[in-house]
Each structure stands twice: as structure tokens, then as C-alpha cells.
Amino acid sequence: MQERIIQFLKTSDGYISGEEMSQRLKMSRAAIWKHMQELRAQGYEIVAVPHLGYQLVTSPDKLLGYEIQSGLNTEIIGKKIIILDTVTSTMDEAFGLGMENCPEGTVVCAEAQSKGRGRLGRVWSSPRARGLYFSFVLRPHLPLNQLAQLTLMSAVALAEAIEEISELKPLIKWPNDILLGNNKLAGILTELRAESDQVKFVVVGIGLNVNTPSHQLTSGASSLKVAAGKSFNRVQVFQAVLRSLEKWYLKLLHHEFAQVMDEWKKRSATLKKRIRISDPSGIIEGEAVDLDEDGALLIRKDNGIIVKKTAGDVFLT
User: Fold this and answer.
1) Measured in whole angstroms, how far is the alpha carbon of residue 208 from the centre of its chain?
2) Positive or negative, the Cα torsion across 124, 260, 253, 235?
């Protein structure tokens, strides 16, 4: 019911009377008043003027399910959103839901993470109510050797949404970092469950620094607020990201990965650069020349031999 009240307030031109709301919602004016008090307690600024009614002034900077889904209009990603206050990691929560056969596109987000993580077990700083920390479950019909496509797709979607909402120009560092200049703005992590070479589900986790002030950022990191010099509505940022993820995931499902590749290359901070890449097999230096059809990075070593890497830590040299 509170969701419907908020929608009335958002779509009304000016004030909306308690009597009109009572008639349309088929509930007493006393019940409406009670809901208004509860909404104010959640952080909504709602003014009430005698003989005029109620008007919504501002919405809280909180990740509320009905706020995120209001006007989202996605088919897969975000049809079900689970909002949590503090968790160890949204990846863990989403993976557990994947094991329980949750619907594809289920999103788990949290206001804070106590043990947010990135690739190779690294810590992802997740200060309360400053960023977007979320994971979502996908069930793509892709062979294991093509799952890197999901990381590239997510990076393209995230970079596009950031540019749309902030007019900043983020770049993508292979395989999973979103950069502003040389500073890390966001990271992407993918984990999967497979049986007999058959992918059961994939969890994609994203951490995006939105309103994180400089003193809460780790070394080498940035946020939308720091880069743009202003704060952002996290719900609007979240909606833009989910819509973009949906758009590019559908392209992947429709076998249009070539479009993902083209967009990734346009935004690449890695290609045509001299790099050093480290993985369990050792360290390789050379020029990052291209991606192959599955999203692996192709590096031309100094002796001219081209090697392919599907994972690793990349450093610009």
C-alpha cells in the first residue's frame, strides 16, 4: 500500500487531497495518515497542508525495492530485487539463492557489506549508503569457454550507464575494472555453478562507488561524487545500471556478442597499450593487441609471439 501512495504522490501535479487518495485507494483517511507517518520515518519528506492535501518533496537516499522498480521496466534483471541492510557479501547471498533455483535476474543489494570482495579474494570497501553493492543471478546457455563474455558485457553495460547518468567518460580495464582516469570507480566479479561442463547459473557482482567521499576511498579509487563534484541519487544510478545490463544481456542471448566487443573496444583502457599481466602461470609483458571471439586478451610479446589470456591481473607499463 505504501508503494501505491508513493506512486500517487510522485505522479500528482502539486498536492493530492487525503479524500481523493482515500477514494482511490479504498481506505480510510486515518489509515492514509498512518502510512504517511511511516513513510516519513523511512526518510520521505512529505508536507501536509490543510484543504490542499499531501505533497512529496524529496525521497530518501535509500535502496528501497519499490523505488528501484518504479519505472524500471526490465524483463529479466531486476524483476525480483532483494534489499538487505548489512551482509558479509551480496555475492554469497545471491549464490545461495542461485542454489535454491531463484528466478533468473534476481538481484541482491545491500546498503553495506562487511566482507565485500573482488577478484582473487581482494576486499571491496563498502561504506554504508555510499555506493551500489549488488549481485544478480543469470542462467545463460553458454559453454564454459564463453563465460568471459558475461564479464565484458557487464563492463560495457556499467560504463554506458555511468556515462548516461553522469556524463563522465569511464574506461574499461580488462578484465573487470571501470576506470575514471587512472582511478578505479567500479569492479565486476563473476562466479558460477557448473555440473558436468553444464553451467547451472552465474552470479555477477558489481561494486560501484557513487557518493563515497574521498576520505572513505581506498588508494587508487574514485567515486562519481569525487569525479563530478556533486552527489547522485543512488536509486536513479541503480536503475540506469540495471536497464543497461538488461539491454546488453539480451544482445548476448540473441548472439550479438560482436556488438558487445565493438563497444568494449571503444571504451578500452587496455588495448594498444604495453602491459604486464600476472596469473598463476607467471608474468608476461607485451602489447595488448586485441580480444578473441570469446573475450580473452591477446598479448604480443616482444619476440612477436601472441599469447592468449582468459584471466589475470593487468598493469600498464
Assistant:
1) 7
2) positive
> Considering the entire predicted model, what is its pTM?
0.89
Q: Long-range pairs for 297-305 at CB < 8 Å and ≥24 separation?
A: 297/174, 297/175, 297/270, 299/275
- Kindly give, in sequence order, each residue whose CB lies less than 8 Å from that of residue 257, ignoring residues fewer than 6 positions away: 149, 153, 251, 293
Could you read off the pLDDT of 161-178 as tens digits, one per residue? 999 999 999 999 998 899
CB-based contact 232:224 (threshold 8 Å): yes
Q: How many helices (H) and strands (E) does the chain have?
A: 9, 14
pLDDT tens digits for 2-32? 888 888 888 888 898 888 888 988 889 899 9
**Per-position DSSP letters for 233-291, written without gaps between them:** -HHHHHHHHHHHHHHHHHHHHTT-HHHHHHHHHHTBSSTTSEEEEEETTEEEEEEEEEE
Give 111-166 pLDDT, tens digit per residue.
Answer: 999 887 766 566 678 889 899 999 999 999 888 888 889 999 999 999 999 999 99
Instruction: Write the burial class of residue 222 (CB in 10 Å: 0-12 exposed, 13-18 middle, 19+ buried).
Output: buried
Q: How many residues does the chain have?
A: 317
DSSP state of 123: B
Cβ neighbourhood burial of 71 (10 Å; 0-12, 13-18, 19+): exposed
Helix (H) or strand (E) holding 132: strand 131-138
